[in-house]
Amino acid sequence: MQNPFIVARQTDSDGVERIDLRDGGYLIWIPRFLSVDETGPLFRTLHATLSWEQSIIKIYGREMPIPRLNAWYGDAGRDYRYSGTRFRALPWTPELQSIRESVNQRLSLSFNSVLANLYRDGSDAMGWHSDNEPELGEMPAIASLSMGGGRRFLLRPRKESSAEHQMEFQLDDGSLLLMAGTVQTHWRHSVPRTRKPAAARINLTFRLII
Ligand SMILES: O=C(O)CCC(=O)C(=O)O
After folding, report:
1. Is 134 helix (H, G, I), strand (E, B) or coil?
2. Domains in the chain, please, with CATH?
3. How far is the CA of 34 from the centre of ligand 1 (A)?
């Protein structure tokens, strides 16, 4: 049965899909934005050279390590704060800068920062959340590029948590997913843990800090 929150769904001849949502959000799904020839070397360089950190976040007043490593890069001064942690923007590395240019060009957007996430194995994960911090402004566009081991990515409306309303993407190596319009207002997303063998994965979520 079609998800009642989806109002239109179109796939072009390159396999790029646009999904329009009932409440003013939309998604652009590009399953093969980068080829395996591109992601292999990029993955190895990013894995070896980014300043991966184990961040601690505060949830209901308790401090805990988040189950993945991350690193924040961006234009000077584009710092980011979430769940009580402040990330200072590190200067773009040549690889991140080049990926940013390709993503900006492909989506006709002007991202100025990126949160890099490293999921070391299937026990690293991301809980349900929206990317709705004030520095992202209203209706932020977020572009999520995945490299390495594929993982499930779930989206569900804030007000409806039944399976019928959930959307799922398999974020495989080289895929790019844009969430835009009101997606961050009305939807949450997550990358659940898995017990299946999961190779390390790097995810880059490009953002515009205003
Ligand atoms: O790893 C992913 O695909 C999602 C990352 C994410 O949700 C985030 O960084 O806010």
Report:
1. helix
2. 6-207 (2.60.120.590)
3. 18
